[in-house]
Amino acid sequence: MQTIQTIEGLEEAIQRFGILPFFRSRIPGWSLEEHISRDVWFTDREGPWEWKGKLAVQRICVYGKFISGKAAFVRPDCFGDLMNLRRLGMTFEERLEEGLVPYSDKRLMDYLLPRPNVLSKHARRECGLTKGFDAALTRLQMSTDVILCDFRYSLGKTGKPYGWGNAALDFPERWFGEALFAEALERTPEESEERLAAGILSALPRADSKALRRLLR
User: Fold this and answer.
1) What is the mean pLDDT of residues 102-117?
2) Does the predicted TM-score (pTM) go above 0.85?
3) Residue 66 three-state SS
4) Residue 80: how many other CB atoms lie within 10 Å
């Protein structure tokens, strides 16, 4: 794969892999970090830190902490299978009844329900979790219940944005529409895992299939 130097190059990589972790993983070659040009990695030039929000808000990808609690880009048509796999074919309420969801996660979900596209700083302050907010938000991303759909930046005196940006939170079904994921949710979790693994292995045929599947789960 060619070295990624532009946002278009990143989009092409997401299309190729289906799921692309931001940082190095246990699978060699399966990350943006390993393919990005050093000219745009932690430099003054616009790079992946800015691109992630642009791709997410345009719905070109789904962005969030989806692999080992760390950030990843997911092609929208693959995200339904990731949802199906991570949710074990159950709704949030069904997982809650089965004891698979901590109360803190439900509290955050209840806060987000009437507040589409809300900033994480507001959720942190208002959702009622005095501690454990970051852990709950990470779990909800790993379970595919919550995604990061935008990043909004503070502006300096000259009007130039600065900092890492504040993430906007939403549900994937609300941000993309339920129809996008309907077909995938008809499959079994095992079928969804197979489809996701096959797509990544087609781009990385020498990857350890068992290690990959553990990361997908």
Assistant:
1) 97
2) yes
3) strand
4) 26
